[in-house]
Amino acid sequence: MAGVTADAVPKPSVDDEHSPGRPAPGPAAIRPRATLVAAGELLRALSAPVRIAIVLQLRDSGRCVHELVDALGVTQPLISQHLRVLKSAGVVDGERHGREVVYRLVD
């Protein structure tokens, strides 16, 4: 925020932070380790721009590898590599139709 000084940003008053009817913030709930590990794996699976683009392509319908190659303009080996990561993280699943595998997002 270039040109904005700390004085220009309004600070919340005590009344804003502890309004009647609004509970005081408490410590965040600690999640089970398995939940945290699964969340970490999901975030890792979505950490590459190509994988995000694949997920966006699969939002509405399933697609085979060559359709993803055409839509994203990257090589087939790269698409296949990223699909393996997404599949191992449980983000996508593939269903064989003849010689092709159609990938879809997992519900």
Describe what this molecule looks like in 3D.
The protein is of the alpha+beta class. It has a domain of 59 residues: Winged helix-like DNA-binding domain superfamily/Winged helix DNA-binding domain (Arc Repressor Mutant, subunit A), CATH 1.10.10. The protein is 44% helix and 13% strand. The chain contains five helices and three strands. Strands 1-3-2 form a three-stranded antiparallel sheet. The protein is elongated. The relative contact order is 0.13. The model has no long low-confidence stretch (mean pLDDT 83).
What integer value in Å does the Rg equal? 22 Å
Output the helix-strand order: HHHEHHEE
Structural class: alpha+beta
Largest sheet: 3 strands, antiparallel
The count of DSSP E runs of length 2 or more, i.e. the number of strands, is 3
**Uncertain segments of ≥5 residues (pLDDT<50)?**
none
CATH class of the domain at 49-107: Mainly Alpha
CATH superfamily grouping of the domain at 49-107: Winged helix-like DNA-binding domain superfamily/Winged helix DNA-binding domain
Major β-sheet strand ordering: 1-3-2
**Quick one: overall form?**
elongated
* CATH architecture annotation of the domain at 49-107: Orthogonal Bundle
Q: Output the number of helix runs.
A: 5
Terminal residue distance = 39 Å
What portion of the residues fall into strands of 2 or more residues?
5-15%
State the share of residues found in helices, binned by percent. Answer: 40-55%
Average pLDDT figure: 83
CATH topology of the domain at 49-107: Arc Repressor Mutant, subunit A
